[in-house]
Design goal:
single chain; about 220 residues; mainly alpha; about 0% strand
C-alpha cells in the first residue's frame, strides 16, 4: 500500500470511530486574531492550561488595546498558567503592535483578502509563529485548507508509516496538504488527534485494539 492509500485508509478508518468529518467541530473565532493569540499561548502546554490562560487573559483584558497598554509584566502574570509566560507575553505584545501598525486595527480579518501563500508568509514572519500555528489559524479561523501537525499527528503519521521517521512536522504538514482533500482536513486532523489521545499513546500504544493495526508499521509496540 503506497503512502496516499495509507493516508486515505487512516482517514476513513478513524472517521468510522470518531466522526469529526461528519460533524466538524467549531474551533475558530469570529476574530482570527483571537485564534492566533490562543495558539501562541498553547505552545508547550496542554489544552487545559491553554484554555485557562486564555480565559484569564480575556477576563482581565476585554480588548486587545488593553493588553498593549498593560504591558509585558501584567500580561505575563495573567497567562502564567500556560507556562513560558515571559516569552509568550513578549511575543504577544510585539505581534499586537505590528498588526496594528500594518492594518490600523487589532484585527487580521483583512488577511483574507490576500492569497493563501501571502497569508502564510505574513503569519510566519511574526515572532514565535511557526508552521503549526500558521496551519491552525488558516484552518480553524479562516476556514482555509491546512493540516496542522502536533505531537499526536506526527506520532500517528510515522507509526502508520505514511510519513518517514525523519520528517519534521512541517514536512508532514506539507505532504498531508498535498494529498488530503480540503473538505477532509479539519475533521481528519481532529480525528487523528483523538486517536493519538485515546489509543496511539506516546508510551504503551494500545495496538491490539487499534483500527489501523492492519497497516501500521508499529503494530508490534515498537516505539517511534
Amino acid at each position: 500500500m503506497n503512502n496516499q492509500a495509507k493516508i486515505f485508509y487512516t482517514l476513513d478508518e478513524l472517521e468510522e470511530v470518531y466522526h469529526n468529518e461528519a460533524r466538524s467541530p467549531e474551533l475558530g473565532h469570529s476574530e482570527p486574531l483571537d485564534g492566533l493569540i490562543l495558539t501562541i499561548i498553547s505552545q508547550n502546554t496542554n489544552d487545559k492550561n491553554r484554555d485557562a490562560a486564555f480565559a484569564n487573559l480575556k477576563a482581565n483584558f476585554p480588548n486587545w488595546p488593553d493588553v498593549v497598554k498593560a504591558g509585558n509584566e501584567k500580561l505575563e502574570s495573567v497567562i502564567r498558567t500556560a507556562g513560558l509566560a515571559h516569552t509568550k507575553a513578549e511575543r504577544i505584545i510585539t505581534i499586537l503592535r505590528k498588526i496594528h501598525d500594518d492594518f490600523y486595527e487589532y484585527s487580521i480579518k483583512k488577511l483574507a483578502e490576500k492569497s493563501r501563500d501571502e497569508m502564510k508568509s505574513y503569519l510566519r514572519a511574526l515572532p514565535g509563529v511557526g508552521a503549526k500555528t500558521v496551519a491552525c489559524v488558516l484552518l480553524f479561523d479562516f476556514k482555509i485548507a491546512a493540516f496542522p501537525v502536533d505531537t499526536h499527528v506526527a506520532r500517528v503519521s510515522k507509526r502508520v508509516g505514511f510519513a518517514p521517521k525523519n520528517f519534521s512536522p512541517e514536512e508532514i504538514s506539507s505532504m498531508l496538504e498535498e494529498i488530503v482533500p480540503a473538505e477532509r482536513c479539519l475533521g481528519g486532523h481532529v480525528n487523528i488527534i483523538a486517536h493519538g489521545r485515546a489509543v496511539c499513546h506516546s508510551r504503551k500504544p494500545e495496538c491490539k485494539i487499534c483500527v489501523l493495526n492492519k497497516i501500521c508499521n508499529s503494530k508490534n509496540f515498537q516505539e517511534v
